[in-house]
Description:
Number of helices: 7
Largest sheet: 6 strands, mixed
Structural class: alpha/beta
Order of helices and strands: EEHHHEHEHEHEH
Strand order of the largest sheet: 2-1-3-6-4-5
Mean pLDDT: 89
Amino acid sequence: MATSIDVIDAKGKKVDSVELPAEIFDVQTNVPLIHQVVVAQRAAARQGTHNTLRRGEVSGSGRKPFKQKGTGRARQGSIRAPQMKGGGIVHGPHPRDYSQRTPKKMIAAALRGALSDRARGERIHVIDALSVDNKPSTKTVSALLTSIAPSKNVLVVLQREDAISLKSIRNLDAVHVLSYDQLNAYDVVVSDDIVFSKGAYDAFVAFNTKSSNKEEVSA
């Protein structure tokens, strides 16, 4: 069953209302699934370029550093041995790919579950426009976000071409900005409140509803 929320303008006045489709904002939150998708996303962001030199890769002679007997010291075979200063590293990290294969349906389900959790906690907000008279105003938007989303971490979702709104919020601390087609489970999980612009909300719902209908038809 879809629920509705108010759409407010940059001054905090209600101008409209929108429905939150149940297939996106009221599904069961599968915590293990969200955890798996978030871990995979974070792993894919790792560069994996770390590298240490093995015993055979460090510079140095291959001869014994000193004779086997008569020195009173422990016998040594090479200055490139791991126990020697400047020697090779044992079991050190080497370049690798950390990415994990995650099916698209799992990624989509994790996002819906995270959004549903925020919706049930009344942490989803829709703003008609994050500008006043089509002019950027960081002060106005800051006051609005403080009033509707006083939490520490706020995620604002915009359309790609909405440059005016972006100028209004890009200098605000603890506010993260994404376009609607970049929305993902990780950014939803680490954010306390999700604020959509009206255009971004309509585009996001239309895209995900269309995707759901395609899956039903193909099934």
